[in-house]
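# step 3/5: fold
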Amino acid sequence: MDLTDLFEVKFILLVVCSVVLPPAIYGILLLKKAISRSTVLFFGVALIVLAGTDIALINILMASAKHTLSILDARFFASQLKIALYLLPALFAGIGINVVSHILVSHLVSAEKKFSQEHPDA
């Protein structure tokens, strides 16, 4: 496997992690009528992990683009367009953090209500 083939595999992996998996996660979360907290937490963490994977793949592709023969690859990943590539992972991480935060806050609210019911004098 030469450098160009490896570059293509990494690029396909980046597309899958950026364009295919996050909408699939959103679709599952939106289509489910009832969903457990642990499942929502799992999907929130999965979005954060996907964002980290995207950033790592973008950095790897930028480094690899400098060594490929294709001028288009080098210009695309080494130019100002690389900033646009970071927008999707930032969006996924933000939504994932918001989902995890929602689970934690809802758990704390229910724990406070339970405490208030068990200790009415406090």
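# step 4/5: annotate
Helices lie at 3-31, 37-65, 71-78, 82-85, 87-118.
# step 5/5: archive (pending)
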